[in-house]
Amino acid sequence: MFHRFQYEEDFYPNLERLPLHVRMKLDLAGIKLSLKHWLAFHIEERTAICHLPVDHEDEKQVFKDYLNFLSRQYCQAPAQELPPMEPLWETSDHVPAPVRERSGDNGKAVTLEEWNGWASHQRYAFTKQLSRKANPRSFSRFSMSCARQRVDVQDPCLS
Length: 159
Known about the structure:
Blueprint: H1 20-29, E1 31-32, H2 35-40, H3 43-51, H4 57-75, E2 80-81, H5 97-103, H6 112-117, H7 120-131, H8 136-147
Antiparallel strand pairs: 1-2
């Protein structure tokens, strides 16, 4: 599955940027991929990467193997491996402390009900946005347009 965020829609036709959902897969698999390497891959290969699953360990290994294959083919070196990211966004019994604290900076801390109302990819996007040193107005626009929407309502984050 490939989740597309509305705010990224301008670069989906050519995939000239790494989509956020692909970045989530890279984080889960423990791979660092530069934009330069991403753009070295053909559009069909980038599209395949977007659609590869990483839900299970064997899928993560296939994902890593494919990225290593492409990296060796186009960049003459395997993809850079990192420790896989701890998926804070998968927590459902509480809002992770970094999310709760940073989201509270603008006076509207994420509630457990909101957190559990979002799909995994939305929670990842929210967590990733919080981890950046984005200015408060940028974060506020993001949270209002995407993360505060419930999954069972028309989702403006998805096209």
